[in-house]
Structure formats: structure tokens, C-alpha cells
Amino acid sequence: MTAPKLPIDYIEFGARDIPATKAFYAAAFGWEFTDYGPDYTSFVDGRIAGGFWTTPDTVGPLVVLKAEQLEVTRDRVVASGGTITKEIFAFPGGRRFHFKDCNGNELAVWGE
Known about the structure:
Layout: E1 8-15, H1 18-29, E2 32-35, E3 40-44, E4 49-54, E5 62-66, H2 70-79, E6 83-91, E7 94-100, E8 106-111
Parallel strand pairs: 1-4, 5-8
Antiparallel strand pairs: 1-5, 2-3, 3-4, 6-7, 7-8
């Protein structure tokens, strides 16, 4: 059985200062923001949505894929050699899990 194609649906970045981050991206690129508490804000750039979370460390972006069947997708990731780094958990808007691929890149998959 062929795996379904999962689109890149969301991307997250670490941020040391959420208010400064919002001010920068709003002024530089016109992005719009919605806050989910003091440590997370989501953005829309007109094409793709994403978010910034508070972290003291500089980290690379987290690419988030969207799946219709979250548990089935998790099982396919594991069967294909991926390593689950965060088991399925709920967040505002749905549920998701994180995994590392065979190169050590961390991605996430979410579903409603």
C-alpha cells in the first residue's frame, strides 16, 4: 500500500523574545499574529501559517505535516525507520507527534 502524500502545512521557529519577533515580522513582511498565551504566537504570511515558541536556545525550524489519520501516520513513520521524539499530544487546534528521520531532522505531524 502506498503512503498518502502529506503536505507541509505549518512551520515553527524558536524565539527568545515573542513581542520583538512579532514586531520584526509584522514590520518587515506584513505577517499577522494570533497569541496563544505568553510563550506562543502563530502567524499567517498570506500563504502558509506557522508559529514562534519561546526558547532560550537558537533552534532550526520545525516543519509540520498534516495527516488525515494521525495514528496510522505515526505507525508508518516508525515502520519506515523514524524515531518518535514526542508521542501524540493535544494542543489548541488538534493533536500531533514529533519524530526524527534517518538523518536526524526533527519534524512533526498534526491532525484534527
